Amino acid sequence: MYNLAMYYQYGRYTEKNLEKAFYWYQKAAENGDVSSLYNLGEHYELGNGIEKNEFKAFEYYKKSAENGFIDAKFYLGYCYINGIGTEVNKEKGFELYNEAAELLHENDDKVNYWYYKAADNDNKVALYKLGEIYETGKDVCENLVKAFEFYKKSANQGFIDAQYKLGYFYDHGIVVYIDKKKAFDLYKIAAEGGNIKAQKCLAFLYEQGEGIEKDLEQAIYWYKEAIKNEYQKV
User: Fold this and answer.
1) Can you give the residue range of the structural domain that contains 9?
2) 134 and 231 belong to one structural domain
3) For residue 217, is it within any domain?
4) How many domains does the chain contain in total?
5) Which of 34, 47, 110, 221 would bridge 52 by S-S if both were Cys, CB 3.0 to 4.6 A apart?
6) 74 and 168 housed in the same domain
7) Considering the domain boundaries, does residue 148 fall inside one?
């Protein structure tokens, strides 16, 4: 049931359908799957396949955390610190961070560290790092929706690498529908800020005429910029 919900949520082997994803997460949760409780919270928080309701989101995160799901403990702490579906309670939030960290592998508390840093006025680098952690599944379960949301928060604070990541998600239709124009706009911001990967992607879009009118002169310019910056790094 959980896997079927994941396929519908991410559009794997079938068309993306958030309503059906929500339905199957509910079924899995009713049968005791704690990760599905967490995902139901996510759907309510973001309004994916259901009307947005942060209070219900908080309750599902809490149920999942109380049943021992580490990712939920971390994110529940984040909810307490940022007042998502509940009153702000930083002491409780940090307590949950620490509880979750103790359940991770010995001497591996990077997730806890970045959650702590993100709590510090929504530190844009920390938000980006949390996006990376959820994208790669390093120390927590891979969660591309959470990755996208943390990248978006970081990008909204002007972090160039996060702008690139958002562009990549839109370019390839990762948890969002493919939008080449939006990908182009985000790549351009990141490329002008010096992100080499964004410069290459922007050049490719200019070369292929995706999201923008085809322009080989601009394509060559951005390929050269990427090569020059790579050389300088070496």
Assistant:
1) 1-143
2) no
3) yes
4) 2
5) 47
6) no
7) no
Q: What percent of the chain has pLDDT over 70?
A: 97
The reply to whether 109 and 216 lie within a common domain is no
Neighbouring C-beta atoms of residue 141, cutoff 10 Å: 13
Q: What is the CATH number of the domain that holds 209?
A: 1.25.40.10
User: DSSP labels for the chain?
Assistant: -HHHHHHHHHTSSS---HHHHHHHHHHHHHTT-HHHHHHHHHHHHHTSSS---HHHHHHHHHHHHHTT-HHHHHHHHHHHHHTSSS---HHHHHHHHHHHHHHS-TT--HHHHHHHHHHTT--HHHHHHHHHHHHHTSSS---HHHHHHHHHHHHHTT-HHHHHHHHHHHHHTSSS---HHHHHHHHHHHHHTT-HHHHHHHHHHHHHTSSS---HHHHHHHHHHHHHHHHHH-
Beta-carbon contacts of residue 162 (< 8 Å; ≥ 6 apart): 124, 127, 128, 131, 151, 152, 154, 155
Hey, what are 182's tokens? 């939006």
40 is a domain residue: yes
Q: Tell me how far the alpha carbon of residue 148 is from its chain's centroid.
A: 3
Unique residue bearing structure tokens 């790549």: 187
- Nearest by Cα to 167 from 123, 215, 210, 225: 210
